[in-house]
Amino acid sequence: RYLHSDITTLERMEIIRDLRLGQFDVLVGINLLREGLDIPEVSLVAILDADKEGFLRSARSLIQTCGRAARNLNGAVILYADSVTPSMRQAMEETARRRAIQEAHNVRNGITPEGIHKAVTETFDFSGEPRSAAAPQVAETPEAFTSPQEMEAQIRSLEREMRAAAQELDFERAVELRDRVKALRRFLVLDAGVDPAYELNGHEQP
What we know:
This protein has 206 residues and is mostly helical. The chain contains 6 helices and 4 strands; from the N terminus they run E-H-E-E-H-E-H-H-H-H.
């Protein structure tokens, strides 16, 4: 599977989730794997063209990319290159320096390294079709609103929260809010007598 600039934030979250669940083994990132991806299950990071000096192969970028495997006890990084560039050497030396400090700290304090255990969130629906038997949770019910206008105002508020959460990389919160918006929209179209599947796919009532 691939991550690239045409993939939306929430689609990216689903791809990462599928990787964590073992539905595929290799994720190819196009200039996106430097930061912001929390995947403890990653045990190998392979960096192609590591000797192509530039912004994406600077020492800082290489260190950040290598760090994607740092949370796995068996994490490893392979740099594919024809020669060792100054940036590569600096990244490897800095990584070794940090590892030595961490190992000394562990010995001094009797710490045994453990892997990161992070729960995988529930399956999310990006295609409009349910991917699990569990129904999406929604905090609001139709009875909580006195009018459709009040429900629409709540939808707009949730959408603002959803966008803010996505900008802060809180994708799980963003998806939770997205599901609440979808549920409220479903209540609205049911109340109006519109086929929910038709309306939720972006069509207007005939």
